[in-house]
Amino acid sequence: MIVDKNFITDKQKEFIDKIFSNQDVPFYYHTDAAHNDGLVHFVHHIIKDYKINSDLFELLAKDIFINYCKQNNIKYTKIYRCAINVCFPLNKIKTCNIHTDHTFDYKHLLIYLNDSDGETVLLEDDKETEKIRITPEKYKGVMFNKCWHYHVLPTTLDRKVLVYTFD
User: Fold this and answer.
1) Are strands 107-112 and 120-123 parallel, antiparallel or unpaired?
2) pTM of the model
3) Residues 6+ apart with CB under 8 A from 53
4) Assigned CATH class of 2-21+30-166
C-alpha cells in the first residue's frame, strides 16, 4: 500500500473543490454501491466501461492520476474505471458489501476529497480478517492491490472519493 498526501497541485485542489460548489458536474443517483447492497449514493463516472465518459477526464482521470504515479514511481498501462463517489449516512445500512471491483488483477487508487469518518477497510483473502482501516483525509491518495474490501458509511455529512482501478 502506498499513501501520499502531497501530490495534488493547488490548481487541481481548487478545481476539485469547485466540482462540489457548482451545478455544472452531473452526479447520478445509484442504489447499488457494491454487488446488490442497496447502498444509495451519487456517482459521476469519468471512465465507465473502459471508455472516457466525462469532460473531467483530462484533469481528474489523467493529470492527477499521472501525478500520483510519477511521484510514487508506479508504472501503469491502463485505467479501467474512474469515478467520483459520494455517499451519506443511512439509518439501516452501515457499510457497503465486501467486494472486489473486477474479477481480474488490478490496482486501486483512492483519493479522498474530504475529511470523513467513513473508513475504507481492506481484508485478508478470508474476507473476515482486517488488514487495515484507512481514514479519509482530504487529498490523501491511497494505492493498493486488488483485495476484498468495503467502506463504512460516514456518520455525519458525506464521504467523497475519487476512485480509480488500473493496471
Assistant:
1) unpaired
2) 0.91
3) 45, 46, 47
4) mainly beta
